[in-house]
Design goal:
With 70 residues, this protein is mainly beta. The chain has 1 helix and 5 strands; from the N terminus they run E-E-E-E-E-H. A 5-stranded antiparallel sheet has the order 4-3-2-1-5, with no helix packed on it. Strand 3 and strand 4 form a beta hairpin. The radius of gyration is 13 Å and the shape is globular. The chain starts with a strand and ends with a helix.
Length: 70
């Protein structure tokens, strides 16, 4: 079973010379990747920003979850 939800980093290749990197909660739906980044204001979580990217141009690096590392 492939992983579809968790914490990680997504590298999105927009064109051959431009790469965007997003870190946060990653979720895969069909052919899209949704990254939720937490916005900190004065060191405290103040909101979230959601980015919707095409799965075909994204490389996902999953972070290990606590229950996976035991």
């Amino acid at each position: 079973m492939a992983k579809t939800v968790g914490s990680g980093k997504v590298e999105c290749f927009l064109d051959p010379q431009q790469v965007r990197v997003y870190t946060g909660e990653v979720e895969i739906h069909n052919d899209r990747v949704i990254v939720t980044e937490i916005i900190n204001i004065n060191g405290q979580p103040g909101g979230a920003h959601e980015i919707n990217l095409p799965l075909a141009t994204a490389i996902i690096s999953w972070q290990g979850e606590v229950y996976e590392e035991i």
